[in-house]
Amino acid sequence: MAVIVLIPAAGTGSRMGAGVNKQYLALADRPVLAHTLSIFQNHPIVDEILVISPRDEIDFCRNEVVERYAFNKVRAVVEGGKERQDSVRNGLGALEAEPTDVVLIHDGVRPFFPPQLIGSVITGAQAGGCIVAVPVKDTIKEVDQGRIVGTPPRGSLWQAQTPQAFPFAIIREAHAKAFKEGFRATDDASLVERLGYPVGVVQGSYRNFKITTPEDLVMARAFIGAEGRT
Question: Which range marks the domain in which residue 81 is found?
Fold first, then answer.
């Protein structure tokens, strides 16, 4: 069984308001994406990595991140799509994998995932799927047209993160079916859930946040400074 990591890094970062896409923003002396790739590059159980990039950034990603920082587990940088779901589907299409190989899908702008959880996520994925998530801290309100219409019990609510991991055959089937039926989702687990496969949860870390706003970048730089990471 091989372990393959897909890193969607095709976002435009419109909420960041910076002159560069968020995955290439500086964090200490490296781009955010380089910190993320290091998690999997340095883990012995990971066999290969594919990065998914906008077409016009493929050369930049390859030259300024993959080659510059010697990420030799990165087999290819492949073209992304209009939305994240399209990008992941493109990445799956570029894989040469066996049905039982495990595919981890991890956002390129989550550079603080604890690597010690990778083994648990892979083990959980073999039954159908497994995601990293954390219990929500705040009360969640369901709102419609500016008014509260429901307050779901907080005890049963978890915030989904990545990586999300699945056997290759299952995640490929889930994306193919969603594409055929025009179904859109905000994470890969949702596509697998609708096929009826069990998806487990490994409790992650609140530090495993997605860098999407200027405030996120300030917090990320604080974490990097506290860790003394370069």
Answer: 3-129+162-225
